[in-house]
Hints:
single chain; elongated
Amino acid sequence: xxxxxxxxxxxxxxxxxxxxxxQKMAADYIASQFKAAGIPAYKNNSYYQExxxxxxxxxxxxxxxxxxxxxxxxxYYTYPDQSEQRIATDSIQFLGYGIQDPEVYDDYKNVNVKNxxxxxxxxxxxxxxxxxxxxxxxxxxxxxxxxxxxxxKARESGIRALLIxxxxxxxxxxxxxxxxxxxxxxxxxxxxxxxxIYISKEMANDVLKNxxxxxxxxxxxxxxxxxxxxxxxxxxxxxxxxxxKVGSENVLGYIEGTDLKEExxxxxxxxxxxxxxxxxxxxxxxxxxSGTVAVIELAKAFAKAKKEGLGTRxxxxxxxxxxxxxGLLGSAYYVKNPVYPLKNTVCDLNIDMIGxxxxxxxxxxxxxxxxxxxxxxxxxxxxxENANKTYSHLELDYTYNDEKDKNRFYYRSDxxxxxxxxIPVIFYFNGVHADYHKETDEVEKINFDKMEKIxxxxxxxxxxxxxxxxRIKVDSNKK
Length: 479
Ligand SMILES: [Zn+2]
């Protein structure tokens, strides 16, 4: 695994951004590894499942309030999520902090926001909130997660456009420069989706006119309750981004089973990462070079077993996918265009980051977070637990399997596209760390012993799943 990871996470692969040169090189490399393991190409002499994406090339959005034109990059910013958008409204709803604590109440539920333009603030009003209570800390990444959660809730409620008032537009832009300047990639273009725009306090005050953010903040902290105000305004957003077609590919290694070969066990990891920003290369050794090389290693082990007369009864698909960092796109494409029928797909074991240790386990690398294992099939959960008890003896940590966990990791990697289709999944994950999504996620920091132990656990789990008499049953439907 070390040799492969040193290759894939080297500067030469330019951070493996979907659709770019480095991703194509990585696809070639993975295919060559499948070939060397004696795994035949699955179709048309190719290991690739190709797909096309629309790249949205960011241009400046135009925003007017009472015909006054504001300045993109100074007064506001937007991510290039949609190709075209025009929204004009004469009224905006102000909803305080949006959601403070989704378990206590959810502001969007009590007001009618469908198809409306809504303004909220970042952060939360009280000195203690559920996030700080759970973790004891309030890190930047948790703040970002909290904002994401607000956006998700807003989207679910059918809001047309969401204006988020931020503390410091310039700082946000500096912190998110790479993402703001990169093209967003989409499987399908849709401009129906909620539009999000981040605005300065000054701009917010212009919208509010008769009251100011300061007054409103005071009102929220004195009443301790969310409230709604409707503001008459004349607000126009105009967006017209460029669109280009980009080709990408998933890389598939298929090993046919014996008497139960119609049934398929899928093992996935994403091999794409964030690419580069000028001279700064995001090598993504842990995310998800670690999962990618684990998939290659597992494919080799099962291919070797088959060669030695120990082929599995069910078939196995080792699939490294692209487009994960752009929104789980490669796996989304696969489940819409499965090479083997989804109804015959028994489960997906997804590996995304298994080579590092997080802050909660500093002195104990022998752990792994498991997410999803009991959500659709109690048998899957038990099989993995038994494999661990018998062979691996790792500490299995289910912290992030809790549906109340604010990080919502269950929804954030490729297994979710399988789970959405009723296919049981396990997500193997070491948790985030200081180098997560940074250029410092380098191969030198990888703990290969830990990676090997987890890969063995996945091997024994996949072995049992592919050889047992009964296909595992879907017997629950948890979130
Ligand atoms: Zn990842």
